[in-house]
Amino acid sequence: MTTTQSGTTQTGSSVIGGPAQVLTDDEITRFVREQLDARDLDGRSVCLVIPDGTRSCPLPLLLSAVHGALAGRVTRLTALVALGTHAPMDEAHLAKMLGYAVGGLEERYPGMTVLNHEWWDPDTFVSLGVIPSTRIAELSEGRLAQSVDVRLNRAVVEHDVAIVVGPVFPHEVVGFSGGNKYFFPGVAGQAIIDLSHWLGALITSSEIIGTRGITPVRALINEAAAMIPSEKLALCVVAQSGTGALHAATFGDTESAWAAAADVAAETHVRYLDAPVTRVLSIIPEKYEDIWTGAKGFYKLEPVVADGGEVIIYAPHITKISETHPEIYEIGYHCRDYFVKQWDLFSDVHWGVLAHSTHLRGAGTWDAEHGERDRVRVTLATGIPEDVVRKANLGYLDPSTLDVAAFEADGETFVVPNAGEVLFRLR
User: Phi, psi (5° rounding) for residue 317?
Assistant: First the structure.
Protein backbone atom coordinates (compact mmCIF):
# COMPACT_ATOMS: atom_id res chain seq x y z
CA MET A 1 0.00 0.00 0.00
CA THR A 2 1.21 3.50 -0.78
CA THR A 3 2.37 5.50 2.20
CA THR A 4 -0.19 8.13 3.09
CA GLN A 5 0.87 11.74 2.94
CA SER A 6 -0.69 14.42 5.10
CA GLY A 7 -0.04 18.08 5.67
CA THR A 8 -1.34 21.62 5.40
CA THR A 9 -1.93 23.59 2.20
CA GLN A 10 -0.72 27.15 1.65
CA THR A 11 -4.25 28.39 2.36
CA GLY A 12 -4.41 26.60 5.70
CA SER A 13 -6.57 23.53 5.03
CA SER A 14 -5.35 20.14 6.20
CA VAL A 15 -4.96 17.32 3.66
CA ILE A 16 -4.46 13.57 3.85
CA GLY A 17 -3.89 11.32 0.85
CA GLY A 18 -3.42 12.21 -2.81
CA PRO A 19 -4.22 11.25 -6.41
CA ALA A 20 -2.26 7.98 -6.42
CA GLN A 21 -3.34 6.87 -2.95
CA VAL A 22 -6.19 5.03 -1.27
CA LEU A 23 -6.79 5.78 2.39
CA THR A 24 -7.65 3.19 5.01
CA ASP A 25 -10.69 3.57 7.25
CA ASP A 26 -8.43 4.05 10.26
CA GLU A 27 -6.48 6.81 8.54
CA ILE A 28 -9.67 8.65 7.63
CA THR A 29 -11.19 8.28 11.10
CA ARG A 30 -8.00 9.49 12.76
CA PHE A 31 -7.75 12.47 10.40
CA VAL A 32 -11.35 13.53 11.06
CA ARG A 33 -10.90 13.18 14.81
CA GLU A 34 -7.71 15.22 14.82
CA GLN A 35 -9.26 18.02 12.79
CA LEU A 36 -12.43 18.28 14.86
CA ASP A 37 -10.59 17.95 18.16
CA ALA A 38 -8.56 20.99 17.20
CA ARG A 39 -11.66 23.15 16.60
CA ASP A 40 -13.54 25.21 19.18
CA LEU A 41 -16.81 23.28 19.02
CA ASP A 42 -17.55 22.52 22.67
CA GLY A 43 -20.98 23.73 23.75
CA ARG A 44 -21.95 24.78 20.22
CA SER A 45 -24.62 23.46 17.83
CA VAL A 46 -23.46 21.88 14.56
CA CYS A 47 -25.29 21.31 11.26
CA LEU A 48 -23.67 18.78 8.91
CA VAL A 49 -24.59 19.43 5.26
CA ILE A 50 -24.31 16.09 3.44
CA PRO A 51 -24.90 14.81 -0.12
CA ASP A 52 -27.86 12.75 -1.29
CA GLY A 53 -27.61 9.29 -2.85
CA THR A 54 -26.42 10.50 -6.25
CA ARG A 55 -22.78 10.88 -5.17
CA SER A 56 -20.10 8.24 -4.54
CA CYS A 57 -19.11 8.81 -0.94
CA PRO A 58 -18.50 6.57 2.10
CA LEU A 59 -20.93 8.54 4.27
CA PRO A 60 -21.27 5.88 7.00
CA LEU A 61 -17.52 6.03 7.57
CA LEU A 62 -17.36 9.82 7.49
CA LEU A 63 -20.44 10.43 9.62
CA SER A 64 -19.36 7.83 12.16
CA ALA A 65 -16.02 9.61 12.48
CA VAL A 66 -17.67 13.03 12.77
CA HIS A 67 -20.29 11.79 15.22
CA GLY A 68 -17.62 10.09 17.32
CA ALA A 69 -15.66 13.33 17.49
CA LEU A 70 -18.62 15.58 18.31
CA ALA A 71 -21.01 13.51 20.44
CA GLY A 72 -20.95 14.81 23.99
CA ARG A 73 -19.16 18.01 22.94
CA VAL A 74 -21.85 19.81 20.96
CA THR A 75 -25.29 20.85 22.18
CA ARG A 76 -27.08 19.74 19.02
CA LEU A 77 -26.04 17.75 15.93
CA THR A 78 -28.13 17.79 12.75
CA ALA A 79 -27.39 16.22 9.36
CA LEU A 80 -29.12 18.07 6.50
CA VAL A 81 -29.34 16.29 3.13
CA ALA A 82 -28.41 18.72 0.34
CA LEU A 83 -31.08 17.73 -2.18
CA GLY A 84 -30.94 20.89 -4.25
CA THR A 85 -34.23 20.22 -6.03
CA HIS A 86 -33.83 16.43 -6.21
CA ALA A 87 -36.53 14.10 -4.88
CA PRO A 88 -36.58 13.67 -1.08
CA MET A 89 -34.99 10.57 0.39
CA ASP A 90 -37.30 8.22 2.29
CA GLU A 91 -36.28 6.29 5.40
CA ALA A 92 -35.12 3.24 3.43
CA HIS A 93 -32.86 5.35 1.18
CA LEU A 94 -31.51 7.35 4.11
CA ALA A 95 -30.77 4.18 6.08
CA LYS A 96 -28.88 2.67 3.16
CA MET A 97 -26.91 5.86 2.47
CA LEU A 98 -26.00 6.49 6.11
CA GLY A 99 -25.38 2.88 7.08
CA TYR A 100 -28.04 2.06 9.62
CA ALA A 101 -30.95 -0.39 9.77
CA VAL A 102 -34.34 1.11 8.92
CA GLY A 103 -35.59 2.73 12.10
CA GLY A 104 -32.15 2.46 13.70
CA LEU A 105 -30.82 6.01 13.32
CA GLU A 106 -30.64 6.62 17.06
CA GLU A 107 -28.75 3.39 17.63
CA ARG A 108 -26.12 4.18 14.98
CA TYR A 109 -25.87 7.93 15.59
CA PRO A 110 -27.18 8.68 19.10
CA GLY A 111 -28.56 12.20 19.44
CA MET A 112 -28.19 13.13 15.76
CA THR A 113 -31.18 14.36 13.75
CA VAL A 114 -31.36 13.79 9.97
CA LEU A 115 -33.39 16.15 7.78
CA ASN A 116 -34.23 16.27 4.09
CA HIS A 117 -33.85 19.72 2.54
CA GLU A 118 -37.55 20.42 2.00
CA TRP A 119 -37.07 22.79 -0.93
CA TRP A 120 -40.76 22.61 -1.84
CA ASP A 121 -41.82 24.18 1.47
CA PRO A 122 -41.42 28.00 1.71
CA ASP A 123 -41.15 27.74 5.49
CA THR A 124 -37.85 25.87 5.00
CA PHE A 125 -36.04 29.09 4.15
CA VAL A 126 -34.72 32.26 5.69
CA SER A 127 -33.50 35.23 3.67
CA LEU A 128 -29.85 36.18 4.15
CA GLY A 129 -30.23 39.38 2.13
CA VAL A 130 -30.01 40.50 -1.47
CA ILE A 131 -27.08 40.51 -3.89
CA PRO A 132 -27.66 43.63 -6.02
CA SER A 133 -27.78 43.58 -9.81
CA THR A 134 -24.56 45.57 -10.13
CA ARG A 135 -22.68 42.92 -8.15
CA ILE A 136 -24.30 40.09 -10.13
CA ALA A 137 -23.07 41.77 -13.32
CA GLU A 138 -19.53 41.83 -11.90
CA LEU A 139 -19.60 38.21 -10.72
CA SER A 140 -21.11 36.93 -13.97
CA GLU A 141 -18.66 38.92 -16.10
CA GLY A 142 -21.53 40.80 -17.70
CA ARG A 143 -23.69 37.79 -18.59
CA LEU A 144 -26.49 38.65 -16.13
CA ALA A 145 -27.56 41.80 -14.31
CA GLN A 146 -30.38 41.30 -11.85
CA SER A 147 -30.62 41.23 -8.09
CA VAL A 148 -31.26 37.97 -6.24
CA ASP A 149 -32.74 37.22 -2.83
CA VAL A 150 -30.38 34.76 -1.17
CA ARG A 151 -32.53 32.23 0.67
CA LEU A 152 -31.10 29.30 2.61
CA ASN A 153 -32.42 26.40 4.66
CA ARG A 154 -32.99 27.83 8.13
CA ALA A 155 -31.37 24.77 9.75
CA VAL A 156 -27.96 26.07 8.64
CA VAL A 157 -28.57 29.50 10.11
CA GLU A 158 -30.04 28.13 13.33
CA HIS A 159 -26.83 26.25 14.20
CA ASP A 160 -23.62 27.87 15.38
CA VAL A 161 -21.44 25.91 12.97
CA ALA A 162 -22.15 24.42 9.53
CA ILE A 163 -19.82 21.66 8.35
CA VAL A 164 -20.03 20.49 4.75
CA VAL A 165 -19.26 16.76 4.51
CA GLY A 166 -19.05 15.42 0.98
CA PRO A 167 -17.16 14.66 -2.22
CA VAL A 168 -15.71 16.86 -4.95
CA PHE A 169 -16.18 15.97 -8.64
CA PRO A 170 -15.97 17.76 -12.00
CA HIS A 171 -19.29 19.57 -12.38
CA GLU A 172 -21.28 20.86 -15.34
CA VAL A 173 -22.50 24.09 -13.71
CA VAL A 174 -19.68 25.29 -11.47
CA GLY A 175 -16.46 23.57 -12.68
CA PHE A 176 -15.88 21.33 -9.67
CA SER A 177 -18.55 20.48 -7.11
CA GLY A 178 -18.23 20.61 -3.33
CA GLY A 179 -17.48 23.24 -0.74
CA ASN A 180 -19.95 26.13 -0.73
CA LYS A 181 -21.93 24.43 -3.48
CA TYR A 182 -23.47 22.30 -0.73
CA PHE A 183 -25.17 25.50 0.47
CA PHE A 184 -25.95 26.94 -2.97
CA PRO A 185 -27.74 25.19 -4.61
CA GLY A 186 -27.64 22.25 -2.14
CA VAL A 187 -29.92 23.74 0.53
CA ALA A 188 -30.86 27.01 -1.15
CA GLY A 189 -34.00 28.72 -2.39
CA GLN A 190 -35.21 28.64 -5.98
CA ALA A 191 -34.05 32.12 -7.01
CA ILE A 192 -30.35 31.59 -6.34
CA ILE A 193 -30.55 28.06 -7.78
CA ASP A 194 -32.07 29.36 -11.00
CA LEU A 195 -29.61 32.23 -11.29
CA SER A 196 -26.50 30.12 -10.69
CA HIS A 197 -27.58 27.32 -13.02
CA TRP A 198 -28.58 29.65 -15.81
CA LEU A 199 -25.24 31.44 -15.50
CA GLY A 200 -23.54 28.08 -15.95
CA ALA A 201 -25.75 27.33 -18.95
CA LEU A 202 -24.86 30.64 -20.59
CA ILE A 203 -21.18 29.71 -20.26
CA THR A 204 -22.18 26.14 -21.40
CA SER A 205 -21.49 22.85 -19.70
CA SER A 206 -18.77 21.79 -22.13
CA GLU A 207 -16.90 25.03 -21.45
CA ILE A 208 -17.11 25.12 -17.65
CA ILE A 209 -17.08 21.45 -16.62
CA GLY A 210 -13.80 20.47 -14.98
CA THR A 211 -12.53 24.07 -14.89
CA ARG A 212 -10.33 24.60 -11.87
CA GLY A 213 -10.29 27.71 -9.74
CA ILE A 214 -12.99 30.34 -9.27
CA THR A 215 -15.37 30.23 -12.21
CA PRO A 216 -18.10 32.91 -12.45
CA VAL A 217 -20.60 30.44 -10.95
CA ARG A 218 -18.24 29.56 -8.09
CA ALA A 219 -17.73 33.30 -7.49
CA LEU A 220 -21.51 33.76 -7.22
CA ILE A 221 -21.81 30.81 -4.83
CA ASN A 222 -18.98 32.11 -2.65
CA GLU A 223 -20.58 35.56 -2.57
CA ALA A 224 -23.83 34.06 -1.30
CA ALA A 225 -22.03 31.81 1.21
CA ALA A 226 -20.27 34.84 2.72
CA MET A 227 -23.71 35.99 3.87
CA ILE A 228 -24.22 32.90 6.08
CA PRO A 229 -23.86 33.95 9.74
CA SER A 230 -22.78 30.50 10.97
CA GLU A 231 -19.13 29.48 11.06
CA LYS A 232 -18.48 27.44 7.91
CA LEU A 233 -16.13 24.45 7.74
CA ALA A 234 -15.77 21.59 5.27
CA LEU A 235 -14.63 17.99 5.25
CA CYS A 236 -14.14 17.48 1.51
CA VAL A 237 -13.24 14.09 0.07
CA VAL A 238 -12.15 12.71 -3.28
CA ALA A 239 -13.79 9.34 -3.76
CA GLN A 240 -12.71 6.54 -6.04
CA SER A 241 -15.63 6.66 -8.47
CA GLY A 242 -18.10 3.84 -7.96
CA THR A 243 -16.46 2.59 -4.76
CA GLY A 244 -16.43 3.46 -1.09
CA ALA A 245 -12.72 4.20 -1.12
CA LEU A 246 -11.14 7.63 -0.77
CA HIS A 247 -8.08 9.05 -2.49
CA ALA A 248 -7.92 12.08 -0.23
CA ALA A 249 -9.66 14.11 2.46
CA THR A 250 -9.26 17.79 3.27
CA PHE A 251 -10.48 19.90 6.18
CA GLY A 252 -10.66 23.64 6.73
CA ASP A 253 -12.87 26.54 5.77
CA THR A 254 -15.28 25.80 2.91
CA GLU A 255 -13.18 27.56 0.29
CA SER A 256 -9.67 26.32 1.07
CA ALA A 257 -10.73 22.74 1.81
CA TRP A 258 -12.69 22.66 -1.45
CA ALA A 259 -9.77 24.04 -3.46
CA ALA A 260 -7.37 21.43 -2.06
CA ALA A 261 -9.81 18.60 -2.87
CA ALA A 262 -10.49 19.97 -6.35
CA ASP A 263 -6.76 19.84 -7.08
CA VAL A 264 -6.82 16.11 -6.33
CA ALA A 265 -10.08 15.51 -8.22
CA ALA A 266 -8.61 17.21 -11.29
CA GLU A 267 -6.06 14.40 -11.44
CA THR A 268 -8.23 11.46 -10.39
CA HIS A 269 -11.51 12.30 -12.12
CA VAL A 270 -10.43 13.76 -15.45
CA ARG A 271 -9.19 11.38 -18.16
CA TYR A 272 -7.87 12.29 -21.56
CA LEU A 273 -8.31 10.84 -25.03
CA ASP A 274 -5.98 11.48 -27.93
CA ALA A 275 -8.73 11.78 -30.54
CA PRO A 276 -12.50 12.38 -30.58
CA VAL A 277 -14.90 9.44 -30.77
CA THR A 278 -17.93 9.13 -33.04
CA ARG A 279 -20.13 7.22 -30.62
CA VAL A 280 -20.29 6.77 -26.85
CA LEU A 281 -22.26 4.17 -24.94
CA SER A 282 -22.68 5.78 -21.52
CA ILE A 283 -23.80 3.15 -18.99
CA ILE A 284 -25.63 4.84 -16.14
CA PRO A 285 -25.45 3.31 -12.63
CA GLU A 286 -28.63 2.75 -10.66
CA LYS A 287 -27.91 5.49 -8.13
CA TYR A 288 -29.26 7.85 -10.79
CA GLU A 289 -33.01 7.27 -10.75
CA ASP A 290 -34.13 9.70 -13.48
CA ILE A 291 -32.66 11.59 -16.42
CA TRP A 292 -32.46 14.76 -14.35
CA THR A 293 -29.63 13.14 -12.39
CA GLY A 294 -28.52 10.47 -14.90
CA ALA A 295 -27.77 13.15 -17.50
CA LYS A 296 -24.34 13.40 -15.87
CA GLY A 297 -23.52 10.46 -18.13
CA PHE A 298 -23.78 12.89 -21.03
CA TYR A 299 -22.13 15.93 -19.44
CA LYS A 300 -18.95 14.03 -18.64
CA LEU A 301 -18.64 12.63 -22.20
CA GLU A 302 -19.71 15.50 -24.47
CA PRO A 303 -16.20 17.02 -24.71
CA VAL A 304 -14.74 13.93 -26.45
CA VAL A 305 -17.51 13.36 -29.02
CA ALA A 306 -16.79 14.37 -32.62
CA ASP A 307 -19.07 16.79 -34.46
CA GLY A 308 -22.07 14.82 -35.69
CA GLY A 309 -21.35 12.01 -33.23
CA GLU A 310 -23.72 10.35 -30.78
CA VAL A 311 -24.01 9.69 -27.05
CA ILE A 312 -26.28 6.79 -26.09
CA ILE A 313 -27.51 6.99 -22.51
CA TYR A 314 -28.04 3.35 -21.48
CA ALA A 315 -30.16 3.09 -18.34
CA PRO A 316 -32.95 0.49 -18.54
CA HIS A 317 -33.78 1.17 -14.88
CA ILE A 318 -34.71 4.81 -15.52
CA THR A 319 -38.43 5.22 -16.28
CA LYS A 320 -38.89 8.99 -16.03
CA ILE A 321 -37.17 12.18 -17.11
CA SER A 322 -37.77 13.96 -13.82
CA GLU A 323 -39.84 13.26 -10.74
CA THR A 324 -39.83 16.85 -9.53
CA HIS A 325 -39.60 19.09 -12.62
CA PRO A 326 -42.59 18.54 -14.94
CA GLU A 327 -41.65 21.61 -17.02
CA ILE A 328 -38.94 19.60 -18.76
CA TYR A 329 -41.60 17.38 -20.36
CA GLU A 330 -43.11 20.48 -21.96
CA ILE A 331 -40.03 22.34 -23.19
CA GLY A 332 -37.88 19.30 -24.04
CA TYR A 333 -34.13 19.41 -24.59
CA HIS A 334 -32.52 22.16 -26.64
CA CYS A 335 -29.22 23.99 -26.99
CA ARG A 336 -28.58 27.30 -25.24
CA ASP A 337 -29.27 29.50 -28.27
CA TYR A 338 -32.71 27.93 -28.77
CA PHE A 339 -33.76 29.61 -25.52
CA VAL A 340 -31.60 32.74 -25.58
CA LYS A 341 -32.75 33.77 -29.08
CA GLN A 342 -36.41 33.12 -28.23
CA TRP A 343 -36.24 34.49 -24.72
CA ASP A 344 -39.73 35.99 -24.76
CA LEU A 345 -41.12 32.43 -25.05
CA PHE A 346 -39.10 30.90 -22.22
CA SER A 347 -38.11 33.56 -19.70
CA ASP A 348 -40.90 32.52 -17.30
CA VAL A 349 -39.74 28.89 -17.11
CA HIS A 350 -37.55 28.10 -14.09
CA TRP A 351 -34.05 28.91 -15.26
CA GLY A 352 -32.74 25.81 -13.51
CA VAL A 353 -34.96 23.72 -15.80
CA LEU A 354 -33.75 25.61 -18.87
CA ALA A 355 -30.18 25.04 -17.72
CA HIS A 356 -30.70 21.29 -17.34
CA SER A 357 -32.24 21.22 -20.82
CA THR A 358 -29.20 22.86 -22.41
CA HIS A 359 -26.76 20.71 -20.44
CA LEU A 360 -28.16 17.46 -21.80
CA ARG A 361 -28.66 18.74 -25.35
CA GLY A 362 -25.12 20.07 -25.53
CA ALA A 363 -23.59 22.60 -27.87
CA GLY A 364 -25.56 23.87 -30.83
CA THR A 365 -27.04 26.85 -32.64
CA TRP A 366 -30.50 28.19 -33.42
CA ASP A 367 -31.76 30.86 -35.77
CA ALA A 368 -35.15 31.60 -37.26
CA GLU A 369 -34.13 30.53 -40.77
CA HIS A 370 -32.37 27.21 -40.07
CA GLY A 371 -33.88 26.23 -36.72
CA GLU A 372 -31.87 24.19 -34.24
CA ARG A 373 -28.63 22.51 -35.21
CA ASP A 374 -27.04 20.47 -32.43
CA ARG A 375 -23.42 19.38 -32.42
CA VAL A 376 -24.05 15.79 -31.27
CA ARG A 377 -27.01 13.42 -31.15
CA VAL A 378 -28.36 12.29 -27.79
CA THR A 379 -30.15 8.94 -27.68
CA LEU A 380 -31.93 7.46 -24.67
CA ALA A 381 -31.94 3.68 -24.23
CA THR A 382 -33.98 3.72 -21.03
CA GLY A 383 -37.30 2.57 -19.64
CA ILE A 384 -38.92 5.87 -20.66
CA PRO A 385 -41.59 5.36 -23.37
CA GLU A 386 -40.56 6.23 -26.93
CA ASP A 387 -43.24 8.90 -27.40
CA VAL A 388 -42.07 10.73 -24.26
CA VAL A 389 -38.44 10.60 -25.37
CA ARG A 390 -39.13 11.90 -28.87
CA LYS A 391 -41.41 14.65 -27.60
CA ALA A 392 -38.48 15.77 -25.45
CA ASN A 393 -36.39 16.18 -28.64
CA LEU A 394 -34.10 13.22 -27.98
CA GLY A 395 -33.40 10.04 -29.93
CA TYR A 396 -34.82 6.70 -28.84
CA LEU A 397 -33.34 3.21 -28.73
CA ASP A 398 -35.16 0.20 -27.28
CA PRO A 399 -32.91 -0.91 -24.38
CA SER A 400 -33.97 -4.54 -24.83
CA THR A 401 -32.27 -4.57 -28.24
CA LEU A 402 -29.01 -3.05 -27.01
CA ASP A 403 -26.08 -5.50 -26.81
CA VAL A 404 -23.30 -3.99 -24.71
CA ALA A 405 -20.81 -6.67 -25.76
CA ALA A 406 -21.46 -5.92 -29.42
CA PHE A 407 -20.78 -2.23 -28.86
CA GLU A 408 -17.58 -3.09 -27.01
CA ALA A 409 -16.43 -5.24 -29.94
CA ASP A 410 -17.38 -2.99 -32.85
CA GLY A 411 -14.21 -0.87 -32.71
CA GLU A 412 -16.20 2.34 -33.18
CA THR A 413 -17.92 2.84 -29.83
CA PHE A 414 -16.37 4.21 -26.66
CA VAL A 415 -18.11 2.22 -23.90
CA VAL A 416 -18.07 3.87 -20.48
CA PRO A 417 -19.34 1.85 -17.48
CA ASN A 418 -20.41 3.61 -14.28
CA ALA A 419 -20.72 6.90 -16.16
CA GLY A 420 -21.48 10.21 -14.49
CA GLU A 421 -18.53 11.08 -12.25
CA VAL A 422 -15.36 10.84 -14.34
CA LEU A 423 -14.92 13.60 -16.93
CA PHE A 424 -13.40 12.77 -20.32
CA ARG A 425 -11.51 15.42 -22.28
CA LEU A 426 -9.35 15.61 -25.37
CA ARG A 427 -5.67 16.28 -24.91
Answer: -75, -15
CATH code for the domain of 318 = 3.90.226.30
pLDDT truncated to tens, each residue of the chain (427 aa)? 333 556 666 557 999 999 999 999 999 999 999 999 999 999 999 999 999 877 788 999 999 999 999 999 999 999 999 998 888 889 999 999 999 999 999 999 999 999 999 999 999 999 999 999 999 999 999 999 999 999 999 999 999 999 999 999 999 999 999 999 999 999 999 999 999 999 999 999 999 999 999 999 999 999 999 999 999 999 999 998 878 799 999 999 999 999 999 999 999 999 999 999 999 999 999 999 999 999 999 999 999 999 999 999 999 999 999 988 999 999 999 999 999 999 999 999 999 999 999 999 999 999 999 999 999 999 999 999 999 999 999 999 999 999 999 999 999 999 999 999 999 999 9
Q: Which of 310, 297, 321 is nearest to 407 (CA)?
A: 310
- Same-domain pairing of 210 and 311: no
Q: Is residue 228 within 8 Å of residue 152, measured between CB atoms?
A: yes
Q: Which domain holds residue 365?
A: 271-426
pTM of the model: 0.93
Quick one: which of 410, 1, 33, 10 has its CA closest to 249? 33
Domain boundary among the residues 268, 296, 327 is at 268
Say yes or no: 296 and 352 in one domain.
yes
Domain count, the chain: 2
Query: Which among 117, 126, 127 has a CA at the least distance from the CA of 48?
Result: 117
